[in-house]
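User: I'm curious whether this sequence folds into something compact or stays loose and floppy. Could you predict its structure so I can see for myself?
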Amino acid sequence: MKITYLAKLGELTLKGSNINAFESKLVRNVRDFLKHIPVDIILRAGRMYIDVEEENCREVEFCLSHLIGITGWAKTTICEKNIASITSTVTELGKIAKEAGARTFKIDARRSDKSFELDSYAIMRQAASGLYDNKILDVDLHNPDVTIWVEVREKCFVYTDSKTGCRGLPVGMSGKGLLLLSGGLDSPVAGYRMLRRGMRVECIYFHSYPYTSDEAQKKVEDLAKILSTYGMQTTLNIISFTDVQMLIKEKAPEAWSTLALRMCMMKAANMVAKHIGAQCLITGESLGQVASQTLENMQVTESCAVLPLLRPLVGLDKEEIIETAEFIGTYETSILPYEDCCVLFSPRHPVLKASLEDAREVYEKINPDELIKKAFETRVVKHFYAFESL
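Assistant: Here's the prediction. I'll summarize afterward.
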C-alpha cells in the first residue's frame, strides 16, 4: 500500500530565476538519503510529495525530520475532491485523535485549486460538521488538542500530525566549509547552522592520545555521524596533535597554552581546507564564553586563518546553543564525560586580552610548523553518509 508524505518548502521558494536549481538540489538530497528505498517524488507549487510503500515509512520519516530546506512535513490521507469525502476523512482522523486522548479540534484549510466550489472558510466550516454535530470533539480555535489540515490542490490532502522541519536552504547550494569539531556542545551546533545555510560541511578533529582517550575520539565520530544525517554526508579528518601540544607545554608561557594551541589548530585547518577544497573555516566560538573567546583572543586566532573564519554562534548564549543541540540530537553525546585536548591542557590563569604582536612572538618561539605539517600528513580520514543511519 502506497503512503504519501507532504513536505512544505521553505526559504527556497523566495528564490527568483534560479529557484529550479534549489528545488532540484532538494530532490537530489532526498534521493541520496533514500538511495536504497524506492520512492516517487513530485515537486509542485511549494510542496514536495513523496510516495512510498508502507513498510518504508520509518525511513522516509527519518529523512524528512533531518532534511534541510523544508519547514514542515506530514503523513497524509488522500481523499476525493468533494466536500462529502473531505468531511468523512476529517471525521475519521478526528476519531483517531480522540482515541489518542484529544478532546478539542480545529480545521485549517488551504484551497490552492481555485476551481474547487468552496473557499477555505467554507471548507473548514463544513468539514468540521461531522465531528462537531456528532459530539465527537469540541471546537477550540485557539488551543486545540488536535489540528486537522485540509489542502485542496491537484489532489485533496488531509492530515493531523504536522512535524516541524529544519528550514534553511538545501545542503550543497552554498559551497563547502571545514568545521573544527570538538566533543563539546558548541561546534556541532555551529556546523548544523552552516548546513542550514546550504553549505556542505566537512570536519577536522584534534586528538592527543594518550592524554585524550579513544572514547573521546569515538564521541566526536558519533557527533560527525549525527551531522551527516543533516548534511547528507561528512568527512572527519582526525589529526594527532600530541607532539604539538607537548611542544607548546615545553616552550610557551603557561598562560598562552590554550591560545597557542588554537593558533596551531588554525594552521593545520588551513592545510586540510586547501586539500579538500573548502572555502571557509567554521568554529563554535561564542563571544566571551571562555577565556580564548574574548574579542582580542578571537582576533589572534583568526590571524592564523588563511580562509574566511565563520563563527555562527558568536552572538548566542549557552541556553540557545543547548536548545539547538537538543533539537538536532547532539546534546546527549556532547555531554558525555570525555574531555578534548583543549580542556586537558587549559592553564589556570589564561591570557584574556592577547595582542597580535605578543601572539606572533609566542608562536615563533614555539616554532611548531614542522610538527603541524607532520600531523596533517599522518591524519586519519573517516567518511559518514546519511543513508547509513536509516
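Summary: The mean pLDDT is 95. The first strand starts at residue 2 and ends at 9.
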